[in-house]
Amino acid sequence: MKYFWVLGFVSLLLAGCARGFDLNWTEVVYDGEVAVGGPPLFVPLTLIQSAAAKGAVCLDGSLPGYHLHRGFGYGANSWLVQLEGGGWCSDIRMCLFRKKTRRGSSYYMEKQLQFTGILSNKPEENPDFYNWNRVKIRYCDGASFLGEGYNMAAGLFFRGQRIWLAAMEDLMSKGMRDANQALLTGCSAGGLAAIHHCDGFHALFPASTKIKCFADAGMFLDAVDVAGRRTLRSFFGGLVNLQGVSRNLPRTCTSHLNPTLCFFPQNVLSTVQTPLFLLNSAYDVWQLQESLASKAADPHGYWQDCNMNNAKCNTGQIQFLQGFRNQMLNCVEKFSLSSKNGLFINSCFAHCQSERQDTWFGNSSPAVSNKGIAKSVGDWYFDRSQVKIIDCPYPCDRTCHNLVFNGRH
C-alpha cells in the first residue's frame, strides 16, 4: 500500500542565493512506500581531533567530523565511505551565511544521524552493504571537499581538500587500511566530490584491495538555462576562484580547459581510472530549479508550476527538458563504453536516490526493466553483471518517486 510521505527539510534561506544550497526546499511530498523493519539506526558524530593541527577545518574553523557504524560478520573488513552533499558557496556573503549552519560548522551539526538507504544496517533495506563499515563524512567546506585557501577579512577557511585528507587518515587508522574492499560514494555535491576524489581514494590502498566509486546525482551539467545563459558555469566560476579549487583539479583537464570547466564532472569523467558508477535522474530537480529554470533565469515565473510539479510542465517545457536529457546521455556515452563502469539513468524528477530508503530498496522502488537501483549498484560492484541502464524518456516510467514541492522554492 502506498502512502504520502512528507519530508521536512531544514530550510537554509538566503535571499537570492538558493543555488548555494543543495536542497533549499521546505517541504517535499512524494508517493512511496514507508520503510518497515526494526528500530531506526542513529549513529553519533565523531569529530576529527587531529584535523586542527593540519588546518583541516570547516568554514568557521571548527573541527570536521563523520558518523561511523562498524561492520560485522563477513562485512567486517569492507568499507563504504559516503561524502555528504549540501550545495556550495561561491561568494563571501554566501559562505558567511553558511558558516553559521551545519554546512559550514560542526557546532551546528546534528550529534547523531539516521542511517538509511545505502547506509542502512538491515539486510531487508540494504542487501549488499548492510554489514559493511559505513561512514558518512560531514560536509562543511562548501566546495565539494576540494578547496584550499583562507580569507582573513571574513574569517573563512576554505579547506575542503585538507578535510578530505584528514578524514581519510583518521579512518585508515581505525581499520580502513586493512579493508579487503571499499566503495567511495556521495550524493549531490558529495557525488561530484566522489568523482573528483575517486582515484585519490583508490591510491590509499594496496593494489590487492577492491576499490570502486559510486556517484549519486553528481552529474551537474554545463547546460544553457531557459534564458540562454550558463547559470551554473557562472556560479561554479565564482566557487573555483574564491575557494582555490583549481589546484586540486586533475591536471589532465586543467592543462587544456579552464579550471571552472574542470569542476564539471562531464569534463573529468575520462580522466577517472577507477571503476565508477553513475546514478542520476535525466531530469534532476535540483538542476531544473537552480540551474535550468532558476528565479534569475525565469523572473516572470513561467516555469514556476513545472518546477514544483512535473505533472504541470507544458509541452514546450517538456521538450526543453528532453534536450537536457539528451545532453546528459551524450556526456556519459563514452564513459559507458568501458566495461569497468556502471550506469543507471532513470527518467524521474528526483535528486539523490541512494540515501532515501524508498528509492534505494523497497517494494515499490524505482526500476528500469524491473531492475532497481540497489540491485544495479550491487551487481556492478560485485561483478555479478555489467550494468548500463538508461530509461526511456519521460513520461514512460511509472515506477518513479517524483518529488513534488509545496511553496516557492
Automatic annotation (TrEMBL):
Residues 1-20 form the signal peptide. Its EC number is 3.1.1.-. GO terms for cellular component: plant-type cell wall. GO terms for molecular function: pectin acetylesterase activity. Keywords: Cell wall, Cell wall biogenesis/degradation, Hydrolase, Secreted, Signal. GO terms for biological process: cell wall organization. It is found in: Secreted, Cell wall. Hydrolyzes acetyl esters in homogalacturonan regions of pectin. In type I primary cell wall, galacturonic acid residues of pectin can be acetylated at the O-2 and O-3 positions. Decreasing the degree of acetylation of pectin gels in vitro alters their physical properties. Belongs to the pectinacetylesterase family. This is Pectin acetylesterase.
